[in-house]
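Appendix B, example 12.
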Amino acid sequence: MKSKDYYNEISKGYNELYGEEQLKKWNIVKKITSFSKDDIVLDLGCGTGIILQELSKMVKQIIGIDNAIRMLTKAPKLDNVSYFLTNAENIPFPDKYFDKTISLTMLQDVKNWDDVFKEIKRVTKGEIVITLLKRNKDLETIKKRLKKYFTIKKYIEEEKDFIFLLE
């Protein structure tokens, strides 16, 4: 089953299944990077938008991108949040459009990390926060690819994830 199909399938119960885990990651993200009222932020793989309600109070604008339509239909409707149905290899925004990018628990579902990392680097002018599941079979390969495209400013090992603050 493709990841998009999987997430469409579980969208109804996603928040109950993963909400607490995502919020735990978000609390770590808030400690390692700061957001300002002028920031335009990309949430890559935003899913049901679990963290967007809190983040939307901290920044000017958020663009949430996901490739699973049913996940996006569960996301909160907020004044400064827009959603786009697309994949991470094709972010439909100009170069250096976003002040910051966050991507929590999305990379395990990507097939071509180089394309995704090139896109994130292209559209982001500031900090990037990415989480990787520890149980990912390609973890070491992904970490090597991260180092090719970004400077790792901070690295946190959490219970289920590695959290990277990149530049």
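The CA atoms of residues 152 and 166 lie 5 Å apart. Residues 3-10+36-166 form a domain with the Rossmann fold fold (CATH 3.40.50.150).
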